[in-house]
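User: Can you predict the 3D structure for this chain?
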Amino acid sequence: MTTAGLTAPPASARSSWVPPSVRLAETVANHPQSAFECRLIDTPGSRGLRNWPSAVRSRIAAQFGLTDIGGYRPGEGRSDHHSGRALDIMVRGDAGTEVAEWVRAHAGELNVKYVIWQQGYWQPGMNGYRPMKDRGSETANHWDHVHVSFYRGSGTCPFR
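Assistant: Here is the predicted structure, written as structure tokens:
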């Protein structure tokens, strides 16, 4: 089953699934501007991250009450994780959609390169998510985490 070009989630997650693009305006409207503030906080999980992704990681953790946010991991290839310019925000369902939509709404300020969520790929300038091929698992298909990659450099904190 597909909705707005996205493959529907596994049956276990379907009862609460809403296409990510549906929640964008609602997500922004439900957060007071004072909630959007970025600070660089050195936390154990930020080791290896560039300063800007680390600041965004801290903002997302504080705003959404999340503690499981990974970033740097060694390696090579196309991933931005090995350069310290990517986050994996471990969250599922509606909470993950809320995080992904907040990131999309502030992509310019946050210097976002792209977002992967629920087997969909989005980058600034796209109207919605582009469906991705099945990579074989919930984690590889990004059903259990939001991936955010950043361009080099820094951005500006939303609503600062």
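The radius of gyration is 15 Å. The helical segments are 24-29, 51-64, 93-105, 107-110.
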